[in-house]
Amino acid sequence: MDTQQIQSLENRLIEAMKTSNVKELDALIANDLIFTSHTGQLFTKQDDLDSHGSGNIEIFSIEPHEQKIRIEGNVAIVSVLLEISGSFFGNTEVGFYRFTRVWKDHDGKWQVIAAHSTQAVREQVQLD
């Protein structure tokens, strides 16, 4: 696996998030996912799929700005700054969020096993 292949997986994940494509999200996210949101809440894969499937998460736009990818054996670590607007459990939010995602190779199938997001202060963000 190289950085271009991880970039392709990241693009697929972002597109699936934008369109709430539960089938694609299911393929890209590991069953034992640990996701910590910017509010400190823990979410499982099923939580994420249910939120997209029910309409509780609706993404209007996602614009990636900074991305760093590091590959260590069968694990890839991605740090990306995303400008996101959407509706999350009835609240409309617009802002910058920095995500760290860990992708792992499960017998040739790369999936996100862990992720964390934090809200970034706009004044501290340097766009590409």
Please tag this protein with its features.
single chain, 128 residues, alpha+beta, Nuclear Transport Factor 2, Chain: A, six-stranded mixed sheet, 3 helices, 6 strands, 53% strand, globular
Short description:
With 128 residues, the protein is α+β, with helices and mostly antiparallel strands. The protein is built from 3 helices and 6 strands, in the order H-H-E-E-H-E-E-E-E. The protein has a single domain (3-124), classed as Roll (Nuclear Transport Factor 2, Chain: A), CATH 3.10.450.50.
Q: With helices defined by DSSP (H or I, 4 residues minimum), what is the helix count? A: 3
Strand order of the largest sheet: 2-1-6-5-4-3
Low-confidence stretches: none
CATH class: Alpha Beta
Silhouette: globular
Q: Gap between N and C termini, in Å?
A: 26 Å
CATH topology: Nuclear Transport Factor 2, Chain: A
Computed over alpha carbons, the radius of gyration is: 14 Å
> How many strands appear in the DSSP assignment?
6
Q: Helical percent range?
A: 25-40%
Question: How many structurally independent domains?
Answer: 1
Overall mean pLDDT score?
92
The ordered string of helix (H) and strand (E) elements is HHEEHEEEE
Secondary structural class = alpha+beta
Provide the CATH architecture: Roll
Query: What's the story with the biggest beta sheet?
Result: 6 strands, mixed
Q: Please identify the oligomeric state.
A: single chain
